Amino acid sequence: MTVYYYKDRFLKGGETPVPVEDRAFNYGDGIYEVVRFHRDRSFGLQEHLERLRDSAEAIRMALPFPLEEIESIVRSAVSQVEDEVVDVYFQISRGEALRVHPFPQTDPVLSLYARPGRIYTEDFREAGVAVITLPDERWSNCYIKSLNLLPNVLAKQAAVEAGAYEAVLIRDGWVTEASASNVFGYHDGVFFTHPANRHILNGITRRFLLRAIQKLGFTVQEEPMSEEFFQNEVESAFITSTTMELMPISKINQRELHPLGPESPVWQILQAFRTL
């Protein structure tokens, strides 16, 4: 079952009210978030809402409702989906207007859907996923969670066509993040991940993972990994996102990585993350 909300109300089955002149269609002029719920318990909902607010400020767009009201709408949507795990996608566009580039005098619009979340089996997670490396061809403001995702889509498709799960992006010789996730590497007792600057989206799961790493007493360095280091030297690596949590990397291009096991630092981090 999927629940839909648009503008100011939940929709009935079969309704498709989004106008074709909405600036989300014409320009990707908007922002979004994805939140996971386990029954009534959300994962990082407040952090997602705060990032939504920050993204709106970055593109000089007002929110259609206060954050508290958006939270209420999100929770109401979740309550209508009778599944153990529910994912909620919600976006704010600048609204419907004639197709001209400057900001129109319109009211921003909230769109939302809630549906059963994708579940990864422990066997799948333990096996890990293959990744390839590709040039990071996105814009310079990746810290904004905007609707402009075509470069990400192209990178993800290239990974799929190469028989991989994800594309890890390289900017000027340094690992930034992946097409739809953040990237961590582990080597000689230290975890590495790109700092939260304008070149990556500061993922909510990424933030929680940093806490888990520190909770276990590991060293973490928020600094870029060189492509050579990531490709040839890291002992372990993983990607993170709201819907994946932590997903170990089993292969980088043609190089196999160590399998995930109970003694692995990555496995320990995953277990610590689940207790946060």
From TrEMBL:
One of its GO terms (biological process) is carboxylic acid biosynthetic process. GO terms for molecular function: transaminase activity. GO terms for cellular component: cytosol. InterPro entries: Aminotrans_IV, Aminotrans_IV_CS, Aminotransferase-like, BCAT-like_C, BCAT-like_N, Class-IV_PLP-Dep_Aminotrnsfr. Pfam families: Aminotran_4. Keywords: Aminotransferase, Pyridoxal phosphate, Transferase. Its cofactor is pyridoxal 5'-phosphate. It comes from the Bacteria. Belongs to the class-IV pyridoxal-phosphate-dependent aminotransferase family. This is Aminotransferase class IV. It comes from Puniceicoccus vermicola.
